Amino acid sequence: MPRKFIVFAPLKTPRLRHLMLIALFTLAGTACNNDSDSTSRDIHTSRCINDVSASDRHIYQCDGVEFKTLVTQECIDNACGLIFDVHGWLSNADEQEGRSNLARAAVDSGGYIVVQPGELSQPPSWDGSIHYAIVFDFMQQAMDAFAVDLDRIHFTGFSQGGWMTWNFICEHSDIIASAAPISAPGGDCFIDRSGPVRKVPIFLISGTEDILIPYYSAEGQWSITDTLVGVLYDYKMVTQNFSAYDFSATGDIVVDESGRINTAAEDVIFEIVDGGQDSSFLWTRYTDTDGTVLEHLRHTNNHVYPDNPDSLIFPEDPSVWFTVGEAVIQFFIANPRKVQRQ
Hints:
29% helix, single chain, 8 helices, alpha/beta, 2 domains, ten-stranded mixed beta sheet, globular
């Protein structure tokens, strides 16, 4: 059977050829746009987030609090993690970044939006009865507006910001993947309670010479050691609660030669990450059988970041050689939320 050929008649006029080309380009453009729409992310504004473009320092005003926010283009194009980094008393968001360097660390590591809230009253001071709910509401707005990775939402803060961090550990453990309170005891859900609903990996940083937040208080004042042992006990990493421990003359918890608390559960893995008992810092890690970790970086400085002492208030030399902000972000990278969602 002879083959049949379809013969196209030549386009007779330049105008007709022009119209045909326009039609072909229009169809091609429509196909490309439809393909782009099918893979685009739902990035949108919210009540307080009025600009969702990339920026090294967005400033959002929300319910009397200022939220300075790093959003890289990577986090517009892909689902990133979300870090809240909260300042302490008499401070602000810019000073917090100057101490923590978390926004810079996030740019270097990639993959995170960093929000640094600022309390705007004079003098700046966080009020838990007012501001915790405002910060949490903004967190939910950011989660939605930037379509973040829900398994990588983290919280850290210094001093009063550390107190807020403990509150979020206790009240929002279903959302917070891991947390790093700095120079702050706390955690109302710990100490003779059941702990948070979900065991949140914690990186606690504190100074033994802190004159504002005592590392240990023989007079019963709430201290770092209360919090540290309370978390270890409620996470079942040690076998005895706070009242069972003896303390050294400096208030340090009695440990064995390796630096491990001497009543730690046998199946808990203990490591010295860096430093030592006779060093200017000791960084330890406890890991339980389900992989939950508690890390504690104890340094010999005052009420400061150990790598970045505030020369105007506590003029000391750095007690660690590494950048704490980078250590915190690496802790967050290593400890995403492990709960499986439906």
